[in-house]
Amino acid sequence: MNYIYTSISLLCLLSVFSFSGCELDDRMDDLTGGYEGILIDKLTGDTVSTEYYGAKIKLLDMAYGEVAQPLVYNILPSGEYKNTKVYPSKYKIWAEGPFYQQDTIFGDIKQMKNMNLTVTPNISLTIEKIELKFGIAAEVTYAYEVYNPYATSSDIGIVYGTDRYPGFRTAMNETESAKTYKRITTGLTAKTGTFTETIYLEPHTVYYLRALGKTNNSGDYWNYSKQHVISASDVDISGIPLAMKQGVTSATSAVLQWTFPESIVDKIKVSYTDKDGTTVTDLFAPGKSSYIANLPYNSTTAVSVELLTKTGESSGVKTIQIVTNALSDYYVKATQLGRPENVPLFNDRAFKMSLSKSYAEIKGPSVDPGWVTSPFRVEFIDWWNSWADPTNMPKNQDIENYTAFTLYGETKSLLDLLPFTNLETLTIRRGEDLFDTGLAIDPQVDLTVLKKLKKLSTVEIGPGVPLTESDFNDAGLAHLTIIKH
Could you tell me how many helices (H) and strands (E) the chain has, helices first? Predict the structure, then answer.
């Protein structure tokens, strides 16, 4: 890349191989000197890599003495530097960057001259192995060694993307949309170490990858390994490992949590037989909640899972086992600290408060009449260890006994309704004085969850709730009676 600065006092022309800044010099009448070279690791003899704007070479014209302002030029990420237009003189030359030691050269630059600078980087980084798996995953093994004796900790990781010489300054976190990504472990105190990590790539795309590291006393300067090139190919989805963790579980339902590259999986196909003998097949999008419902109590159910790509490739059918709880198990389990461990399938704050209010009002007449009118009854589940004996908490059977339920406030998910297998009437209202006053359910809430409630026949929508009958029809719930107040 060329940078050309022209003025009445200066012409500074850098070669096409340089990516440099240029300090202004008032001696444009004679720019016959020049230099080129590389940064050399004093300990290994290898070229020291950096990043764009990640290291600089400085030239101080000794004719002006130590008080002169040095000329400063950026060094390429490859560790190379070159300048073909320099005023011939005797210079003091040194590098500034992610080094804790660097040599200084004193020399005449009267014509083009090779000048390598020897430095000791703060950290040495090496990519030891890259293995491409199922076309779009790279298993990367990299190592580091801290040279800087004054460093007490370091940040180590990898940076990769579709642009050459990926670096910290241009990288984004992997959860963001970008061309370059970074994955960094911070605060490491060990002086040496090896990591193996897997990154997922887009098919038919070329990526550039480097390891990077920074010591706690190196400012904003990062060291880098040599650059490696990875070419992703077609997806071999059959080779993708399918790891499932069973999430919060009731007597009849469970949320499923997956580990696989979401970028290449378009749908998760789940098939099983429910407690009524009905064969169920559902398609879920990656990144969204997937679940199974209406399973037999306290039993193990085989569930078939198939991953599908956008172009129709299949991973093949794999089988997982789902274990449900008993009806006699508590719906809210206690931790050692006396707090609820979970509220299966607790995914929504407004649901939990709605359930707490409802159950406090049901239980109150027989245990403590004050619960029925207490303004804190929406927090009954969270405060159960001070409000009541744990045996007063609802069991799975108590949840199944609900035939009608009112959901208040700013609900964002209906997943928590899956255990309500006998629910016939659902009322959805805005928040009232107890919580979420005036707030209503998210109009984009996923209503298809309600398909799993086989006995549900009526939904009452309170004033100010942003749902209509057409919303339910669009979700495949045209069989429901929708009462809009």
Answer: 5, 33
What DSSP assignment string belongs to 313-381? -B---EEEEEEPPPTTSBSSEE-TTSSEEE-TT---HHHHHHHHHHHHHHHHHHH-THHHH-TTGGGTT
What does the alpha-carbon distance between residue 200 and residue 204 come to, in Å, rounded to a whole number? 12
pLDDT tens for 276-318 read 999 999 999 987 889 999 999 999 999 999 988 877 788 889 8
- Residue 311 structure tokens: 């172009």
CB atoms within 10 A of CB 112: 14
Mean per-residue pLDDT for 342-366? 82
Half-sphere exposure in the Cβ direction for 321 (13 Å, CA): 4
Q: Which residue has the tokens 């403590």?
A: 368
Residues 6+ apart with CB under 8 A from 106: 62, 90, 91, 92, 93
Alpha-carbon span 81 to 20, nearest angstrom: 8
Tell me the three state secondary structure of residue 99.
Answer: strand
Pairwise CA distance, residues 397 & 458, whole Å = 22
Residue 117 has pLDDT above 70, yes or no: yes
